[in-house]
Structure formats: C-alpha cells, structure tokens
Amino acid sequence: MQPFFAQRFAKVEPSFIREILKVAMNPDVISFAGGLPNPAFFPHEQLAVASTKVLQNHSNGALQYAATEGFAPLRQYIADRYFKQYGMQVSPDNILITNGSQQALDLLGKVLVNEGDNLIIEEPGYLGAIQALSVYQPNFQGVALNDDGLDLAELDTLLAEPNHARMLYGVTNFQNPTGLSYSLENRQAVAERLIKHDVLMIEDNPYGELRFEGEHLPPIAKLAPDNVVLLGSFSKVVVPSFRLGWMLMPDWLCQKVTIAKQASDLHTNGFVQQVLHSYLQENDLDEHIERIRTVYGRQKVAMENALLKYCPGIEFTRPEGGMFLWLKLPQHINAMELFDVAIKENVAFVPGQPFYVRPDILNTARLSYAGADEATIEEGIKRLGRVISQVL
Amino acid sequence: MQPFFAQRFAKVEPSFIREILKVAMNPDVISFAGGLPNPAFFPHEQLAVASTKVLQNHSNGALQYAATEGFAPLRQYIADRYFKQYGMQVSPDNILITNGSQQALDLLGKVLVNEGDNLIIEEPGYLGAIQALSVYQPNFQGVALNDDGLDLAELDTLLAEPNHARMLYGVTNFQNPTGLSYSLENRQAVAERLIKHDVLMIEDNPYGELRFEGEHLPPIAKLAPDNVVLLGSFSKVVVPSFRLGWMLMPDWLCQKVTIAKQASDLHTNGFVQQVLHSYLQENDLDEHIERIRTVYGRQKVAMENALLKYCPGIEFTRPEGGMFLWLKLPQHINAMELFDVAIKENVAFVPGQPFYVRPDILNTARLSYAGADEATIEEGIKRLGRVISQVL
Fold first, then answer.
1. What is the pLDDT of residues A226-262, one digit of tens each?
2. Domains in chain A and their CATH numbers?
3. What distance in Å separates the CA atoms of residue B170 and residue A216, rounded to the nearest whole number?
4. Hey, is the C-beta of A218 within 8 angstroms of any chain B C-beta?
5. Are the CB atoms for B348 and B32 separated by under 8 Å?
6. Angstrom distances, CA of residue A324 to CA of A178, A243, A301, A342, B29
7. Residue B276: CA count within 13 A, CB half-sphere
8. Which one of B13, B61, B265 has the shortest CB-CB distance to A106?
9. SS3 call for A319
10. Among B249, A71, A361, which Cα is nearest to A63's?
11. What's the gap between Cα B114 and its chain centre?
C-alpha cells in the first residue's frame, strides 16, 4: 500500500548516535561512545535471590496486571530516600513508576506540549530528551550550560519575552553529555525564576547518586516543589534492563500524567518492580553505589590524566560524578570528520553536534569513562591524541 | 504554580472503568467486571527456574540496555509460531517487542495519526484502544460489530467518502468487550477493502490463542500483509505483569515505529524478554494454553447456562473463545443505573456505554467469565438476575 505518516513523524530519521554505536561495536575499537553502565556492577546473584523470593510467594500479585502508578512499597522506598538524602518531605502519591525515565519525558510531552510551544533546554542537551519531546513538536530554545549551571542572562532574556516558555528541561547533576553540574547558587537562581515566571522544570537526575567528588546538592525540586517534575532512575545505580525510572510530580500534574501512562502502556512491569524492591530490602544500596562511584571516579581521573598527556591543549570538563566528560576541540576541527578518522584508528566517541538544538557548533565531543578500565582508557586516549594530531 | 496542559489533554478525565473496578474490589462482591486472566495459571515455578537460569549467565546481556526492537530470539520464536499456526512466512525483522500490546497502539497513534484524521473502529470497541488513540485526536468513526464481524455495508459507506479513513482498528478474535469474532468470509471481505481503498488495519489479537470451540481462522494480516499491523501479547497466555506484547508490521512502517519506540522508552525490559524466552524453550506453550482454554471454556458454559436460568429473555453473545461475553438488556434499561443496584447486591459487571464512540446505546454490559469458578459464576448470575427483575 501507499505509506502514510502523521505530520509529526514525516521527517523523523534514525538517530545519528544509533549509527555511531553500531560502528563502535567492532571489538577492535576502544569505544568511549556508549552511555552504558559498567556491567561488572550488575548484582546478578542478589537479583536471582530476589526473583526467586518474589516468585515463591503466590499471593503477592507479582505476575498479574498491576497499578498504573507503580508498586506502592517501591514508591514509598523512593519517597523515604528523598527524605534521607535531602530532607525532602514527599508523598509516595506524587511518585509514578515509569518504564525507564525516558518514558517520563514522553508522558510529559503528551500531557503538556502543544505544537509550537516554546520549550527551553540546556545546550548542549540530553539527546534522549530532545528525541522524546520532539515528537510533540515544541519550539526548542537553547540556553547555554556553563561550568556552574544554566546561563542566567540567556535564561532571563528568554523569560522576558511575553510568550515565553512554560517548560524548561535540564540535567542538574553530571549532565549528559557534558558532565557539568548546577552549583547551589545556580539552583537557587533557577528556582526563583521558575516561581517568578510560572515555569515548570523537568529536572532529570539519572546520575546524581554517582558523585565521586564534592557534596550532594539539593535538587531544584526541593527549592520549588510546585514548579518541578524530578525524574529518577535505577538504571545507572542497579540495573538498566529492568527499565525502572520514576517521576516525582507536583499535585496538579498527577492525575493527567497517570491517565497518560495508562493510555501509553497500562503500567510498568510489576514483576521487576517487586524484584527490585526485594533487592533493596535485602541489600545496602549505598554500599553498592559506593563501589560504582569508586571505580568511575578512578576511571575519570585516568581519562583526565591521559587527556593532559596525549591531547595537550584540548579543553575538557572536570565532572564531579556521572559517566561523561566533554571535549572542546580547536574551533576548526569538525568532530564528525574527526570521528571518521578515529574509527580507522580504532577509537570512538560521540561528536557533539546532535546535542545542540542550534546545530552550528561542530568542535565538541562526548567521552564516557564508565565502561573501560584505566589501562584501556589510557590506550584509547593515546589513539585519540594521534588522531587529533593527524587532523590538526 | 498555575497548572497548564496541552490541548490534547485538557479535557481528559480518569477512565470510568478504573472507578468501577475499585468499587468491584470489595471481597463480598462477585465481580465479572475485571479483565484479568485467572492467576491460577501463572507459571510461578517455571518462571523462577527461567529467571535463575538467565541470571546465572553473566554474558547474555540480560541486565544491560538492550535493542529497541526487542530480544532477537524472542522475535524469532514469534515469527516461527506464525508459520506453525497459520503458515505465515514472516521475518523477525518485522516484529517489534512492545511494553504490552497497549504500547503498540500508542506507537501507531504517534507515527500515523494527525489531529482530525478519520479512524474507523468497530463498535462497541476496546476501551484501551479508544484511550490510547484518543491522545492523537482522531475523528473516530464507528462501524457496527455483528455476529460474524464488521458490518460491511457500514464500512463501505464510510470508505466511499472522498476523504475516508486510512486506518481501521479491530479485534478479530473473541473481541473485548463482546466476545464476537470475524468469520472467514468477513476477514476476506475486510482484506479486500483494505487493499482496494489503501487502508491500514490495526488487527489486535490478544485472545486468539484462547479458542475453546471451532477452528482457528487466519489473521487478516495473512490476507493483506502490507495493509495490516498485527498485534499480539503474552499477557493472556503466560503472564500479564511482564508487559510483553509485539507488533508484526509491514516493511514500510518498521523504521518509523522503531524510532517512536526509542523516543518513548528506549526499549522493552530485556531481562523479562530473556526469562520468557527461556520459559518458552523449556515448556510446552500449547499444553499450557490448553489448560487455560479448558477451564475458560467450562466457565463460559456455566455463565451461559446461568444466564438462561436466571436471566430469561436477556440476549447475550456466545463466544468461541476469550474471556468476555456481552449482554443486551431490554431497551429501556440503563446499564449504568443497573450497576448501582447490582453493586448493592454484591455483583459487578461493566456497563457497555464507554465502549461506544457514539454513546447513545445504554442497555449493554460486559461480563468476564475468566476469573471465577463455576459455582461462583452461578451465584453471581443469580444475583444479577434478581437485580434485573428488580429494575424491570
């Protein structure tokens, strides 16, 4: 038959990063391109124990259809953890379990975004958010992400417009792709502006637990609770394949987002919610995270040292946590072209251009230090240094 | 802050059925209202074995991020089963694993439906489809569902319009809510019209395996493969909480739907895909389904007999499979009002009105026979008979 597509999908093309990741899968390639957690930390044995325990109980409803909002004890666990970590008093009623936090972005697009609405996003920004929200066809407005957070002057200029955005998207801790974080002062300044201008922030926080330097800072959701949807995820701290994320929402959003969730897929897998909850009861999550943090922190230092050694003069961010680090190459280097050379030298990264909604910045690149050990990182950055010298 | 919503969600309200199901959860109530599979058939032990096996293997990627399209061996299993059951030659490349088949409806709405597009749906129709597709604001056009399938005269009238629908939604086997099926002749007639008028059908088939009378009929997807997306699900035959459904798509749809899936939630839970696949390797699915069929078939007969005995003169459908049966009450009975009386007599059903896109038919009701044993069904229908006599 004659194909047809909705207008919102007529021009959509496969993600560039998908293609890059395919190329980078060649086993000869040292890849800093992926965004995958290190599988050495996946708790296979503990999850096997938890699975068996959940399945031995035939009256816990673990295999039946389940509540759209999520498994109540897991929502309670998340609420308790916010109190323990940040002194935030939140009700589990305001927490919805999503199919990974990616789904939260889709639900928020569904419920909140009209075609053509202005939507502010930090730049460079998380590609998954750009993809999920693009489906609802907002007009993205980039605000530069600086070393200490959002560029407040740029933000103020946008918010001074009469028809300014009602929504703002940002990753406040160890951002993907840059590794940058919002300082306490920047969080406070952003919170003030959200309240003053009646703007809702999607505060995405998949990496916040993975801090290996400095101190935990309060989410903006603590500073302006009615103006923030805070997203969280177990993917980076326990297990990605379970697809368990959540959103902490202000009261006014709960009902419509729950309806959107029901329309989208009824509910998130109830079995793995119970398995994860059982795992969290029987194991010390903080100890587990500490092990991940220690290794990622060491690997980050190895990457920084290798960059200083093999890529002299190249600027890069110094993340205090998370999985990514951001290179700023000399102005005249196009990272897309650099990628083609690099892949021949068996090293891969992600060129930065797709992370911009104003796609004229070509000399940046994202590197992940999460998936490779220190010796591999050194060798990979050595290759990268050779490639950069070649191109210069 | 001042709440705001996208236009598509401004008027959305919680589903009526959700409210009904809450009332029906009182343990004194015999509920025929739910649509839940009978949990007695959930294979707890076998899934525990499969989970342990999957988790013992540390190199199968079961806990890592996974492919958007789904676990390749599971897609192959589904393709093989289509060949075995219907002689359909399908490629696993055309199968995408979804988070329950509900998600397939959302993905198809995203990729295909513009606001105001005509979209034909059988009437009464599956509420979950109406909810999922409503998000994309089509103009629903009802076509009556008769005892042998879609009303072809009504369908032809709609397809004769110059700006006719490009999409048609239907459940061809043991439909939710009526239990009705499309005959072979009706399937052929629908297939012809899809091809002639360049229409895409969403053929939803969650219950097809649960046939306890008559012979399996080929899906319309076999008769017009380029014009049909066939949806399937493991929820009714193995386990609902895993949220594992799939869509079999024509080539022209695969790429955009895969992108929509990636934007929506990256991928379906990879762990449970491997667990289910391991279960399917080690157990005989046909034997398992045979046990479910036998019991549901007996329960359906019990309900039919009880209806004849306690509700004389009330018309009802005679499903050859599935979980539901449909009552047509006397013209002047409003099933919504009947529900209020019934709940006081401790019996529950779902009034039929929400299943219509033309909501002026008030005297119908959906009953599920899947969840109650024969004695409970007899007692529940006895109560229902009393309630109907009261109201008449």
1. 999 999 999 999 999 999 999 999 999 999 999 999 9
2. 7-42+287-391 (3.90.1150.10), 57-282 (3.40.640.10)
3. 52
4. no
5. yes
6. 6, 21, 12, 19, 55
7. 30
8. B265
9. coil
10. A71
11. 24
Residues of B whose CB is below 8 A from A270: 241
Structure-token match 């650099």, residue found: A338
User: CA quadruple A120, A355, A103, A40: dihedral positive or negative?
Assistant: negative
> Alpha-carbon distance B131 to A259, whole Å?
9
The per-residue pLDDT of chain B, averaged, comes to 95
CA dist B43 and B40 (Å) reads: 8
b (16+ CB within 10 A) / e for B185-207: ebbebbbebbeebebbbbbbbbb
Asked if the peptide bond before residue A177 counts as cis, ω within 30 degrees of 0, the response is yes
Instruction: List CB contacts (< 8 A) between B44 and chain A.
Output: 55-56, 58, 63
Kindly give, in sequence order, each residue whose CB lies less than 8 Å from that of residue A9, ignoring residues fewer than 6 positions away. Answer: A135, B110, B111, B112, B256, B259, B260
Region of poorest pLDDT, from A129-138, A213-222, A356-365, B10-19:
B10-19
The alpha carbon of residue B4 is apart from the nearest alpha carbon of chain A, in Å, by: 7
Report yes or no for ipTM above 0.90: yes
Distance (Å, whole) CA A121 – CA A141: 6
**Are B99 and A265 in contact (CB < 8 Å)?**
yes
Contact A266 B272 (CB under 8 A): no
Helices B270-282 + B72-86 axis angle, to 10: 40
What are the C-alpha distances in Å from A7 to residues B111, B166, B360? 8, 14, 33
User: Of A134, A135, A266, which is closest to B102 when you measure between CB atoms?
Assistant: A266
